[in-house]
Amino acid sequence: MARKVTKAIFPVAGLGTRFLPATKSVPKEIMTLVDRPLVQYAIDEARAAGITEFIFVTSRGKSALEDYFDHNLVLEQELKSKGKDDLLETLNATNMESGAIAYIRQHKALGLGHAVWCARRLIGDEPFAVMLPDDVIAADKPCLQQMIEAYEETGGNMVATMEVPSNKTSSYGVLDVGENVGTVVRAKGMVEKPKPDEAPSNLAVIGRYVLGPSVLYNLNQAKTGSGGEIQLTDAIAEDICNGVPVFGYKFDGQRFDCGSKSGFLQATVAFALARDDLRDDLNQYLQDLYATGQAAQ
Ligand code: UTP
């Protein structure tokens, strides 16, 4: 039986160039889907999966993230004195128990693998999750919870995977599939950002991982890989060569790539349409838009 996973790393030190100029001063993870920042979705998913220690790998200009998870006593007092209990309740999810959240710096954006490696001392010799907040997954059972339940049976390493069109493989890490057993696939290799004609499959890895500490040892010796960055994919693939199994988990849910503008807009619409307080207005707007070709006034 695999050890319990209680720690998660959130690598958020990237430059977020696809959202410039906004990300010049606003961290990408603070951008909101309806009224909750991307990072809140990731934290809620982690909590549901039993994570109790949250490690953020940050960089310059990300202080809004630290403030977001801090108590805002003035605001809380103000809401309390006005009897706005529902809003106070909304803030609860943003508060962290003292000591549950840690921030460490990645001084230079050397790649996702390097960002994860920066958290090595806080992980020690335990399995851990890695969550990329710009991948938002709508699911009845949160994706990380699905994965941890599967990981408890398999051990090794587990990465979330989904089929992508073959012309998109160069945006992802891609699995070389060994055994394919229902929702779990055993990988015999992994390649970062292969060209479509070189991709071993169309099963792409997306931003949820449950990894063993051996991946951190591999990162100790990591060399730069695709795009001149230190790749997490390469460190996981090295485990396969060392006899540690790597499984792809075909999660149940819909993933939105909120690191891209189009994915972010799609998620905004999908999450708004899922809300009782917004659905009717937005539906009406969309219907008018399609009917007339122009926005309703
Ligand atoms: P992306 O590839 O989406 O890069 O990183 P990015 O910098 O966030 O965005 P673009 O492509 O410039 O628009 C995937 C995840 O890995 C983190 C990012 O913060 C994001 O969560 N990352 C990437 C780091 O923490 N450090 C790095 O050096 C690179």
UniProtKB/TrEMBL annotation:
GO terms for biological process: UDP-alpha-D-glucose metabolic process. CDD domains: UGPase_prokaryotic (cd02541). Residues 12-269 form the Nucleotidyl transferase domain. It comes from the Bacteria. It is an enzyme of class 2 (transferase). Belongs to the UDPGP type 2 family. This is UTP--glucose-1-phosphate uridylyltransferase. It comes from Ruegeria meonggei.
